[in-house]
Amino acid sequence: MLRYAAPAVATLALLLAAPPAMALDQVRFYAPFEDTVDPQFAAGRAGPIARGQEAFTSGRRGRALSVTSASAPLEYLATGNLQGSSGTLAFWVRLDWTPSSSDPDREYRHLFNMNRFGFMAYLHMGRLVVASGTSDAAGKWTWHYGPSERVDGWRAGEWHHVAITWSSDDRACDKAVYVDGSLSAQRTGGPVHRMVSEASFRVAPVTDGLLASGAYDDLVITGRPLSAAEVAALARGDHDAALDALKIVPPEPPALAVERATEVKPRAE
């Protein structure tokens, strides 16, 4: 099982001891939100660089982050924790409101976004939308929208699993959205993500006064796009097995070498 209190050094040592294909190109950030916003593992900086009033509630597994206007913003440094070229963002969310296709056009409620880097996932008019942007030398942004998926069937108080994968070359970036373990939407040929050193990411930030309030659990970021089977395993609730396969596992206690006592018999006189 994964719910354990282990020093970060022990976790890092375990990851580095894994086979090369299963090391830090896989899980780069993992925050289970077990009554703390500090991640259980981070390949980059671990602690938040901004946090509001921390609150927690019952989770999909164990505890979860409770997002209210008082808790925002929760922000982490991206360097080392999220790669612009490829990766996966996965998390559980339980909204305390119901997305609707009749929301006013101005209502954008962000589940996740990045500062100084064009990448976001938000709810808008009953859809889950992924958007990527590029900025020019003058700081003007050009946005590319999609993929997106209808989520107006979600209801307040329900848990749903969201996973977003991306993979890019020098010319374009392909993205996919999975909802509750199933591939929902894809888009090829989007802008290439150019990470900057000051980039950071935020969990459910307030945007234009609006908030995707609710509970968030088991935030995972990997350095490569997970396969459909790997995403499905997370969404089925096979969380421990899925992350075990990605080498986020508790360290085994070291075997103790016990020497047998040698009986010393008194010398006969």
Key features of this structure:
269 residues; mainly beta; Jelly Rolls; nine-stranded antiparallel beta sheet; six-stranded antiparallel beta sheet; globular; disordered N terminus; disordered C terminus
Describe the structure.
With 269 residues, the chain is mostly beta strands. The chain has a single domain, classed as Jelly Rolls, CATH 2.60.120.200. 10% of the residues lie in helices and 37% in strands. It has 3 helices and 15 strands. Strands 1, 2, 3, 4, 6, 11, 12, 13 and 15 form a 9-stranded antiparallel sheet that branches. A hairpin with a 4-residue loop joins strand 3 and strand 4. The protein is globular, with a radius of gyration of 22 Å. The N terminus and C terminus are likely disordered.
Which architecture does the CATH hierarchy give at level 2? Sandwich
Q: CATH class, please?
A: Mainly Beta
Query: What is the CATH T-level topology?
Result: Jelly Rolls
Per DSSP, the total helix count is 3
Largest sheet: 9 strands, antiparallel
The average pLDDT is: 79
Helix amount: under 10%
Rg over CA atoms, rounded to whole Å, is 22 Å
Our count of domains comes out at 1
The H-and-E topology, N to C, reads as HEEEEEEEEEEEEEEEHH
Blueprint (SSEs and pairs):
Layout: H1 8-17, E1 27-31, E2 41-42, E3 56-58, E4 63-67, E5 75-77, E6 86-95, E7 109-115, E8 118-124, E9 127-135, E10 141-150, E11 159-168, E12 173-179, E13 182-190, E14 200-203, E15 214-222, H2 228-236, H3 239-245
Antiparallel strand pairs: 1-2, 1-15, 3-4, 4-15, 5-14, 6-11, 6-15, 7-8, 7-14, 8-9, 9-10, 11-12, 12-13
Helix pairs in contact: 2-3
